[in-house]
Amino acid sequence: MKEFTSLKEILAKAQREKYAVGGFNFCNAETAQVILSAAVKWRSPAMLIASSTEVQLCGMEETVKILRLVAETVDVPVCLHLDHTDDVETVCRAVDAGFSSVMIDGSHFPFEKNIEMTRTVVKYAHNKGVSVEGELGAIGANKDAQHEGVGPQSLTDPDMAAEFVERTGVDALAVSIGNAHGFYAQRPELDFDLLKTIRDKVNIPLVLHGGSGTPAEHLQKAILLGICKVNVASEIGKTFTDSYIETMSMGGTWWIIALQKAKNAIAPVIERWIRQLGSQGKA
C-alpha cells in the first residue's frame, strides 16, 4: 500500500533550499496520473490537492483509494492534501481516511474562533502523523473563479500570524498578500514588504494560494521571501476543459478520446509549474 508523505516533510526541505512545491488540484484518476507522471519525469515531490468539491464528487475514502492505486509505483514523495475546508469534523474525517495533509480554513471566522478550530485539528491530526495547513487573512476569489468561495480579501497581519502559529502549532500557513483564487482580471500586486515582515515573525513554511496567472518573476521573489508551496487549480482546470470541449465540439461522441487529449493538454502545464517553482530534482 502506498504511504503518502506529509506536507511538513516535503516543505521542510523546500524551506531549507528556497524552492516551492506546486499544490496541484486533481478531480479524477486521469488528472492524478498526469501530475504524478510530470513529478516523476522531473524528479519533483508531488503534492495533489482535493478540495471539498472534489471530495464531494469522488467521495472521501474513494479519493484516497484512487490516488493510492495511481501512485502505487511512483518513486517520488507523494502528498495527498485536503484543501480549504472550514468544518472540523470533515477535516478530521479526511485524516482518518488517509490524507497525509489537511487544511482547516477558519480565516473568515473571528481570530479566536480560527485559533480554536485550527488548534483542535492540529491536535487530532498530529496524533496520527498528519500535517496541518492553516490560513490567516482571507484570500479573496476573483470574479470569475468558481473555487472555495471565500469572502472578500483581507491581508494577513504579521503580529497576528506569529500569535496564530504559536498558539495552534500549525505546520504551514497560507497568507494573504494580494493574491486571490482564480484567474486575475489584471496583473496582481503582491505585497512583498508584507510577506517579508510575516517571514521575519513566522518560522514555518508559508503558502501562496491563487498561483494561476501570477507572473513568474513575482513567484521567484515570493519564494525567496519564504513561500514554500504554491496552489495551482484554475489554469489546470481551464486547460483541461478547453481541450475537452474542443474535441467534443468537432462532432465526436466518444468521451474517452476527449479525456485522453485533455490529459495530454495539461501535462506541459504541470511540467512548466514544476520548473517555474524550482522543485525539479528535489525528490
Beta fraction = 5-15%
Query: What is the strand arrangement across the widest sheet?
Result: 1-2-3-4-5-6-7-8
Helical fraction: 40-55%
Mean pLDDT: 90
Principal-axes shape call: globular
Q: What is the correct CATH architecture?
A: Alpha-Beta Barrel
* Gap from first CA to last CA: 20 Å
CATH topology: TIM Barrel
User: Can you say what the CATH homologous superfamily is?
Assistant: Aldolase class I
Q: How many E-type strands?
A: 8
Tell me the structural class: alpha/beta
Integer count of domains: 1
Query: Total helix count?
Result: 11
Largest sheet: 8 strands, parallel, barrel
What would you say this structure looks like, in words?
By secondary structure, the protein is α/β, with parallel strands linked by helices. The protein has one domain (7-277): Aldolase class I (TIM Barrel), CATH 3.20.20.70. The protein has eleven helices and eight strands. The protein has helices at 7-17, 29-41, 52-58, 60-70, 88-97, 111-126, 158-168, 192-201, 216-224, 234-249, 255-277; strands spanning 21-25, 46-50, 78-85, 101-104, 131-136, 172-175, 206-208, 227-232. The protein has an eight-stranded parallel β-barrel with strand order 1-2-3-4-5-6-7-8, surrounded by ten helices. Helix 7 packs parallel to helix 8 (192-201). The model is unreliable at 140-152 and 181-186 (pLDDT under 50).
